């Protein structure tokens, strides 16, 4: 769904017109708020030449998902804090991490997340429209809870999809 589609959905549910400029602001706010729940993944390669050094992670980093050695074996001897990571051994590592979502700027942009999350943004837009005038209002809270419920449904549907799981061999 594009920003126009989400805005149209929000307007039809809300029963009042919502501008795309306002919708973009609220969509970007929701994308930032949801963070790692959106399952946006990225990878970076780090060559560790000295185990005593701290390495800086990319600017879009949120949280480490997995670290693999050069041979693709899961590696667990690392420590991350803020946007820094430190390894116990020298090697070349692939760091899989959750990344921040790109912001929407045009009416034809799609939110940078799985398509199952897109309809939920309409409810966040309605929540923000309602809370503009009466923050903490019961009506606004209803729309926020509806937004969270839609996000929860999308997360559970994504988690039910088949995925590859790496396991070790039995000796």
How many structural domains in the coordinates?
2
Structural class: alpha+beta
* Largest sheet properties: 3 strands, antiparallel
Radius of gyration over all CA atoms, rounded: 20 Å
Number of helices: 4
Query: Mean of the pLDDT scores?
Result: 90
Spans of at least 5 consecutive residues with low confidence:
none
Strand order of the biggest β-sheet:
1-6-3
Q: Could you say which overall geometry the principal axes of the C-alpha atoms support?
A: elongated
Number of DSSP E strands: 6
The helix/strand series, from N terminus to C terminus, equals: HHEEEEEEHH
Beta percentage is: 15-25%
The separation of the N and C termini measures: 49 Å
Helix percent reads 25-40%
Description:
The chain has helices at residues 3-14, 20-34, 118-131, 138-160, and strands at 41-48, 54-56, 61-68, 78-81, 84-87, 91-99. The protein is of the alpha+beta class and 171 residues long. The protein is elongated. β4 and β5 (84-87) form a beta hairpin. α1 (3-14) crosses α2 (20-34), α1 (3-14) crosses α3 (118-131) and α2 crosses α3 (118-131). The chain contains four helices and six strands. The protein has two domains: 3-37 and 101-160, no CATH class; 41-99, no CATH class. It starts with a helix and ends in an 11-residue tail after the last helix. The strands form two sheets. It has a three-stranded antiparallel β-sheet, with no helix packed on it.
């Amino acid at each position: 769904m594009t920003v126009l589609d989400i805005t149209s959905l929000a307007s039809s549910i809300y029963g009042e017109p919502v501008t795309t400029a306002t919708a973009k602001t609220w969509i970007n706010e929701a994308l930032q708020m949801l963070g790692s729940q959106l399952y946006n993944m990225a990878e970076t390669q780090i060559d560790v030449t000295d185990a005593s050094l701290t390495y800086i992670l990319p600017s879009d980093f949120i949280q480490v998902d997995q670290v693999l050695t050069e041979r693709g074996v899961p590696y667990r001897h690392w420590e991350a804090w803020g946007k820094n990571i430190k390894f116990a051994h020298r090697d070349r590592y692939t760091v899989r991490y959750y990344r921040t979502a790109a912001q929407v700027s045009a009416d034809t942009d799609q939110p940078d997340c799985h398509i199952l999350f897109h309809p939920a943004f309409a409810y966040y837009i309605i929540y923000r429209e309602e809370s503009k005038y009466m923050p903490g209002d019961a009506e606004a809270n209803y729309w926020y809870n509806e937004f969270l419920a839609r996000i929860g449904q999308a997360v559970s549907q994504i988690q039910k999809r088949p995925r590859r799981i790496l396991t070790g061999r039995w000796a």
